[in-house]
Amino acid sequence: MEASPLVPDILFHIGFVPISRSVVTTWGIMALLFVVLRVSLGTPKVNAGPAQAALEVVVLAIADQLQQVLNRDPWPYMPLLGSLFIFLGLANLAAVFPGATPPTGHLETPAALAAIVFLSVHYFGIRTRGARKYFGHYLEPNPFLLPLNVLGDLTRTFSLMIRLFGNMMSHEFVIAIVVFLAGLIVPVPFLLLGVLIGIIQAYIFTILATVYIGGAIGAVET
Amino acid sequence: MQIDWWTLGLQTVNFLIVIWLLCRFLYRPIRKVIADREAADRAATEAAEAKVRSAEQAMQAYQAKLDAFEAEKQAQITSLHETLEAERVKRLADVQAEAEAALTAGRAKIAAEKATAQTALRADIVALAEDLARKALSSVGDDPLAAAAGYLDGVTATELDGLKQQLGPDAPITVISAQEFGAKRQAKWRMALTTRLGPDVPVTFQQDPSLLAGVELHFPHAALRFSAADRLHRAASALET
Q1: Would residue B120 count as lying in a domain?
Q2: How many domains does chain B have?
Q3: Can you give the pTM of this predicted structure?
Q4: Residues B88, B151: one domain?
Q5: What's the rounded mean pLDDT across residues B222-241?
Q6: What residues in A contact B3, CB-CB < 8 Å?
Q7: What CATH number is given to the structural domain containing B150?
Q8: Which residues of A touch B37 (CB under 8 A)?
Q9: Which sequence ranges form a coiled-coil region, renumbered to this chain (chain B) (predicted)?
Q10: pLDDT value at position B140?
Q11: CB-based burial label for B184 (10 Å; 0-12, 13-18, 19+)
Q12: Is A17's CB within 8 Å of B10's CB?
């Protein structure tokens, strides 16, 4: 574990590009995803096996949740929102693997995800409602509220980033402190609590992103 | 707090790659499987509906055949009833014709037998009548006076006295004949009777064609009959017994 989560943990360099532990963990997650998906869904069958059925359950549960929030077909939003939940869930749970730290416990990963959500909100809003109508909502209910609306968009994206980062970082801190003070056995309940926190934070991040996109496309009042 | 912009950029790219990875290896296969499953379900549903329609069509065809069979059965039953009724009427007519013919033949036979019997009976009657007439006329004889005198001569004295006592001035003996007697024959009869019954016997004469032939002597309380009618009456009584 690095000395501080607020400082980038550079493991090595590729050329002049520094490679941090978060990036390496993310690559590990990507590799794990690739292997699991190739093995489970290499030849998808109508009569699903256990692994395919489990993946179908996860994907359909996410799609159902998105549909309940968006009140429309969730599949156009699944690539972003479903991937957000799956990636965040795996990234937050990376703490249970020895030698790995959650990429979301460092500021860059939540910032990257929040930036992608920020841009996606505008992308889906413009694609669904048109640029004029979409940007017109910044003038509502009063044009004088334009600065506040813009500031609201920025701050909610910032809060999205900070919420995830803060929770995961604090959890890392708590684990580090408990390990430092009580040894190896006592932190186990905190690790289990970390699993719960990781899933909850992935859910919150995804649902908030869904609500933001829903507001942009006119499906949700924000 | 320090942000590593290289890490930020790499994580952005990494997440985009994750999106592609999940789209390529997770969402697309699962959507395809779901679509295939729904297509299979639709196909199964359509096949089931087709089978249901086929079954309904088969049922309708079966029902139509049943209806046709029922109609044919009813038609055959009706035809059979009509045939039986026609046969019954025909047989009844035949039987009635046969009965009528038998009755006519019987009546003709009876009539023929009756005619034959009547002819035979008529012949018998003629023969019987000839026999009766022969007997009646033969017993009367040609002379009734001789027959009456012979009878009176043959009776006993007691019987003769009984006859005499019936007679008186107001009780004559009456001689009834089929033909009217002339004075000469009346004198012969009076002579014969007074000779046998006494000289004072009053004698009267009457004619009765119903006696056919012969004479009857009527006393006040007795009668001696020597007529053909009496003989015929006795012969008929004998035949009845």
Answers
A1: no
A2: 2
A3: 0.62
A4: no
A5: 83
A6: 8, 107-108, 111
A7: 3.30.360
A8: 46
A9: 45-72
A10: 60
A11: exposed
A12: yes
